[in-house]
Design a protein that fits this description.
This protein is mainly beta and about 600 residues long. It has one domain (about 5-605): TonB-dependent receptor, beta-barrel domain (Maltoporin, Chain A, Beta Barrel), CATH 2.40.170.20. The chain is built from five helices and 34 strands. It has a 22-stranded antiparallel barrel. The longest helix is centred in the first third of the chain and has 18 residues, at about 5-20. The N and C termini lie far apart (about 55 Å).
């Protein structure tokens, strides 16, 4: 980022609260609790971090069918797809790699020690999602490893009514999908069951897929405690045309992911105790030539076991949270070998009671892997409320990530892992300001991340292998701006909501002539405009996306959604890539042209 641009950005951020101070009388209406930026729930208005929340209405109206595709509409989030409808996607935040984003389901860590390519093998359907919280920037002081450049927490529905819902859709490329869901409440016990199956013939050669999602959850709530069990299953079988090498267009992959998690909360006056245990298994079968399995086959099975307990104590001085976690990451693989590592850590965080408009949060996580010594990852967040509507905030934190088993041990004719890799670490700084009223919200922020020992796959020329290496240092500077407008002054619901996000990122480059596979292929400029309207009670969603990567490759895409409810039945249309652009997120992996899906859903409360 050049000096003149830095000056403009800093001026905007400093001046934004002053420019809007005259509108203090407007009522601030964002009072939702968030649970991802702190160990203790915090009201959105008191946050000292940059957090985006995808609300239930957005989940329903966005023209997508999968959780991964939903995330591509958030500024600063980069979803790089290898195939349609979530068959495989890599997600990163603020220019980090896909390995540096931590995924949570109801606070349970979804970590695949084989590779981050499997982190979005999510055993829960989009129809079962209540909301999604996206923490931008480091999160190691409260979440430990892998919360390097951001955290995505998928919060699932807890049934409060007896409900049956059915959904079916179909479209071009032989696509069809069916969902059946059931919610039931019996006294203090709520249960939800959901099953979805999707299939497509593919948009080009060897891009066909079939996927299934099944989840069952039961929640018991009374005045003094809360208990929940979640079981999830995800299966994907898909053609992987050129996913990992353009020399082999007939690759295929089959993954099965299972998740079992149990959690509780005990409310003991001013003390809250929260234990969790979980188990995640991922099976991955990869064929370089699907019609000739003997030519080259990879079989991997990972098992991740973990548990944690957290205690929060409220006092006149604020809220103090402390606790610990343990885990085991295991893999059995015909290529990577058989490996396991143990991990455990302890955290301490204190959220000070607001004093003269100042909110302060300090904490840290001490963590140890079986092959690493103890390390401490501290951080702090601070916010100052200038008025009811205007806030400025800043944060600092250290983060880390250990290499995956693929980075350590993978080997094939074009790729070589490195068992001597060090863990990644970073120092992150952020400063921002926000304004919120009943009809308008604005946010602007700058951030700077110093990355050390970052891991990437690099090579010196086309004839050499991709090698996993620690790159000594990569520094990333970014600027984000967001505005949301609810133009209530317009009649006939012509436009109900307008969202605009802009993100600019700049990263140092490698020394020498090494070619980067992942780290220096992030977005340089990203702009997302979302327009929602409901004329004649027909909900329409129009989304414009502009993306420019560091290699100056640009793309402009438009997605469209329409829905109309008629006597309890909802009819909908979802169109991705409306103008049928040719594009790819990963070099050599073509993504679909215009894809139209028509569907119907029905929900009955009984």
């Amino acid at each position: 980022m050049n000096n003149s641009f830095k000056g403009i950005v800093i001026s905007i951020i400093f001046c934004l609260p002053m420019l809007l101070h005259a509108q203090d009388s407007l009522h601030y209406n964002l009072a939702e609790l968030t649970v991802t930026a702190s160990k203790s729930p915090v009201y959105y208005s008191d946050l000292a971090r940059t957090v985006d929340v995808i609300q239930p209405q957005d989940i329903k109206n966005y023209p997508v069918n999968t959780i991964g595709d939903l995330l591509q509409y958030i500024g600063g989030v980069d979803l790089k797809q290898r195939g349609a409808e979530g068959v495989q996607s890599d997600i990163s935040i603020r220019g980090g790699s896909f390995e540096q984003t931590l995924i949570l389901i109801d606070g349970i860590k979804i970590i695949d020690p084989q590779t981050g390519h499997h982190n979005l093998n999510l055993p829960v359907d989009i129809n079962e999602v209540e909301r999604i919280e996206i923490l931008k920037g480091e999160g190691s002081k409260i979440h430990g490893p892998n919360a390097f450049s951001g955290v995505i927490n998928i919060i699932t529905k807890k049934s409060s009514v007896d409900e049956l819902y059915i959904k079916a859709s179909g479209g071009n490329f032989g696509f069809h999908s069916q969902t059946l869901g059931l919610g039931n409440r019996l006294g203090s016990l709520s249960t939800r069951v959901s099953a979805t199956r999707s299939k497509s013939d593919g948009y080009i050669h060897n891009t066909e897929f079939e996927s299934a999602n099944i989840s069952v959850s039961s929640t018991y709530v009374n005045a003094a405690d809360y208990h929940r069990i979640f079981l999830g299953f995800n299966e994907k079988d898909f053609g992987a045309n050129s996913f990992y090498s353009s020399k082999y267009p007939d690759q295929s992959e089959h993954t099965i992911t299972k998740l079992l998690a149990a959690s509780s909360e005990y409310f003991l006056g001013s003390i809250n105790v929260s234990p969790k245990i979980y188990w995640r298994r991922n099976n991955d079968e990869f064929l370089l030539k699907k019609n000739n399995p003997a030519f080259y086959k990879n079989l991997h099975e990972t098992n991740v076991f973990g548990g944690e307990i957290g205690i929060s104590v409220k006092s006149d001085y604020g809220s103090t949270s402390f606790g610990g976690e343990f885990g085991s990451d295991k893999i059995v693989s015909n290529n990577l070998g058989n490996h396991s590592r143990e991990r455990h850590g302890y955290y301490l965080e204190h959220q000070f009671e607001s004093i003269i408009g100042i909110n302060l949060n300090v904490g840290g996580f001490a963590y140890k892997y079986s092959n690493l010594d103890w390390k401490v990852w501290p951080g702090f967040d601070a916010a100052y409320r200038i008025s009811q509507s205007v806030k400025i905030y800043s944060s600092y934190g250290k983060a880390f990530r250990v290499p995956t088993y693929t980075e350590l041990f993978y080997n094939d004719p074009v790729t070589a892992g490195n068992q001597f890799l060090k863990y990644e670490e970073s120092d992150s700084y952020e400063f921002g300001s926000s304004f919120n009223s009943s009809n308008v919200s604005l946010r602007a922020n700058i951030f700077y991340r110093e990355g050390k020992n970052l891991i990437d796959w690099v090579k010196s020329d086309d004839s050499s292998k991709w090698n996993a290496r620690n790159i000594s240092e990569i520094n990333t500077t970014g600027f984000e701006f967001r505005v949301t407008v609810n133009p209530v002054w317009l009649d006939f619901n012509l436009i109900e909501k307008i969202d605009f996000d802009f993100t600019h990122l700049s990263s140092d480059k490698f020394s020498g002539n090494l070619e980067s596979r992942y780290l220096l292929d992030h977005l340089k400029n990203q702009a997302i405009l979302k327009i929602m309207s409901s004329p004649l009670n027909i909900i329409t969603m129009l989304i414009f996306r502009y993306e420019q990567r560091l290699n100056n490759k640009e793309q402009f895409l438009v997605d469209f959604g329409l829905a109309k409810a008629v006597i309890g039945v909802e009819l909908f249309v979802k169109v991705s890539n409306l103008f049928d652009r040719k594009y790819e997120d990963i070099a050599g992996v073509m993504l679909p042209g215009r894809w139209v899906k028509l569907g119907v859903s029905y929900s009955l409360e009984y």
